[in-house]
Structures are given as C-alpha cells and as structure tokens.
Amino acid sequence: MNHSIHSFLLDDFPTFLFKKYDSSYKSILSTLLKQSNNSILDYDLSISNIHHILDYPKNTPNLFLIIIVYNNKLYTLYPHIDNRKKIITSVVMNLLKKLLLKYSSLPNMFLPFYVSDTHFYKKNDLPFFVEARPKNEKGILYPDQNFYNIFLDNKFISYDEFKIILKNKKCNSISKKNIIYFRGANTGSDKHNMRMKLKNIVKEKNNKFIQIHIKEEYLPMYEFCKYKYLLNLAGHQPWSYRFSKILPMNSLVFHINVLQSYNNGKSFNKKWIQCFDEIFKPNKDYVEINYKWIENKTSDQNIIQVYNELVSLYHFYEKNTLLYNKIIQSASKKTNLITNQLCDDIFTYLILFFTKNFYLKNSSSSINSFIESTLKNTPKNEILEFDLTNKILPNIKNNISSSKKEIKKNYSSISKKV
Prior knowledge:
The protein is an alpha/beta fold. The chain has 2 domains: 3-147 and 339-413, no CATH class; 170-337, Rossmann fold (3-Layer(aba) Sandwich). It has helices spanning 3-20, 26-41, 47-50, 83-103, 159-168, 194-204, 242-246, 304-319, 321-337, 340-361, 364-377, 400-413; strands spanning 64-70, 73-77, 109-114, 129-130, 132-134, 140-141, 150-152, 155-157, 177-184, 210-214, 227-232, 252-261, 272-274, 287-294, 383-387. It has a 5-stranded parallel β-sheet. A 4-stranded antiparallel β-sheet has the order 3-1-2-15, with helices on both faces. Helix 2 packs parallel to helix 10 and helix 4 (83-103) crosses helix 12. The chain is globular. The model is unreliable at 395-418 (pLDDT under 50).
C-alpha cells in the first residue's frame, strides 16, 4: 500500500478536516466521522467475507456497482441501467483524481455500492455503500447523488446551487401561506399508499389548510417556499431525496416516519436515515410523525391517524410562533453548513477509511489477487475502464451538467476492456 496516502488517512485526515472547517462545524464533523467509522467497523472486511459480494450482481446487475482501482486505473463493474451509477462514478472518479494528483499513487481499492431505494436484506454482513438504510441495519452511508445532481428548470445543478436559488427566490423572507403542502408523484401506491390516500382524506374532510397535489403538472421546487408547512411523505420506501431539499426552505417540515414490519408486526424497522440525517433532530429541526405499517395487514384506512396528527400539529404551531421560528431557523442554519465541499470531504474520508481497514484485514498481495481475479471473471460487457491520470472533470459542485457530459463521453467511447 502507498505509505504516504496510508499515513494521510491514518494520522492526518480527521485532524485536517477539523482544521479546514471553522468551529461551527465541530459538532457536524464529529457526528459524521463517528457515523462513518462505526458503519465501516461494523463489517468484517476480510476477503473471505467480501468475496461473497460478487455472487449477487450475476443475477441482478442493475442493483450493484463495484468500483475498483487497480494500478492507478479505475474500473466500474456492472455500470449500466441505473443513471445513479454514472453520478456515483463521476463523483468518485473526481475525488480519486484529486488524491492521485496530490499523492502520485493510489492504493488498489475495492468499493462496493448497492444502488437501490430498498435495503440489501439478503445478507446484511456484506459491506455496501448505500444512500439510505434503516437505523437498525448495516450500511455505509455516503452523500447521496441528489447533492450533486438536482434537476431543476430543465438543467442539473448541485446542492450549493440549489440553495443559492432558494436565497435568490427569497425563501427565508417571503410571506408564506398558512398551508401544509405536498406535491409529487403517486409513488408507493402499491405499498404504503400514503400520498393518494392522504389526498383523498383531505378532500373528504374539505380541509382548506392541507394541500396534497399528486400527478399534477410540474412545479419548480422553489415554489414550495410559498407555504408555511411542507410534508415529507413516503413513496416506495420511507426515505426520499426531497427531505434535504425542503429543510432549507424556511418552512416547517412535517416528516412522516414510516416504520415497516415484514414479519406480521413481530418487529419493525427503525427510522430510515441518509448520510446527513443524524445532524437534524426531530422537534428541533423538523417535526416527526410515526406511522407503523405491516406488510399485507395495515389498511389504508389507518392513514387517518396521520391526517389527525397533522391537523393537531397545524393548530399547535399556528399558536406557537416562537417555537415554529426556532425550529425553522435551526434547520436553515444546519443546511447552510452542508456544502458540496463537505460532501466531497466526507465521501473521500469514507473511501480512504474503508480502504485502510480493507488493508488492515488483508495483505497487499491477497488484495491484488482478489482484484485481478474479480476483473478476470466479470463479463467483459459489464466492465468499463477509466484513466485516472487524465484531467480532473469540471468541478462537480459548480458544473454538474458538464460532469455528466464528460462521464457520458467516457462511458460511450471506452473500448478497452479488461
């Protein structure tokens, strides 16, 4: 293993991060680094365990992405179908290019991603980088693709750019309508059916202060700022890319926390979390409503519980404006601290800490043999190769659309296969 990069990770990187950011980031960094360390240390990273990962993409390649660094080249295994894989590859490639530029050589790496809205329940002892997971399940949370790739007004922008748009639209100062608001697709209709059922209840009750818009014409998300209360409703799964985008809107977020049971109610998953969720606390940065759902048992009629609680919360916060303002100000302050640079730094830390522990569990020669064997035995049409010595892609946090064009070009033009 390259000793300079190993030393950088082992001794300097956490200290470097605390020095890089001012004191306002101390609590956030501590939370994120602790979460990162624990999620990786949860796993046995020995090759005797990790090699089982390779059994699963054979049957469902669309759900997996494996990124390999070998001799300073990057290989993506099973890179097709899901567009999220291109974004992950683009982000990781840029981060590795910056490290290579600084340290001249990279250790060989094996980075497995599970790319799905669901959780990898089949064998939770296998390490995967994931965008979200139940709090009581394993998984290495990384900054999800929506921090790098938000579609708004017919173009792709970064999270930093999204927050600038909210500021330019005066989301923190406009007069807001006293309405609980949601607009989105009818996702989850075959499962929780939360969105459409809640809309129907609102209509039946002739409620004038709750608006649920499903399958209606497109409305730019910054228009949501006009409403005093914003709903985060479950779709196919109890987590969403929406949450991080409505928290900075200076509106009070009501998050419906769906607790799922797939064993007839004997046990329930805990709350689903994403990379930055542990920074935000219920009743301090948003308001949470718990809703228990049992597969093939919970009736849509139970959603009336959610409706009743929303009505109660609405009247409560209409009367308690000081508490309302305290919560939205706390959420706004914290979301302002989450930048694309922080996303890059946390993602880099995860990659390096995972790699360090991979080498602590296995010899360099064993890792080299494992990677060589993996590349050799993966179907050629499921491998793409990239040269990490090429120029760094346009800075993703400032120009995600250019990054996507570049990565698309790499995907379409590469002809050399392993």
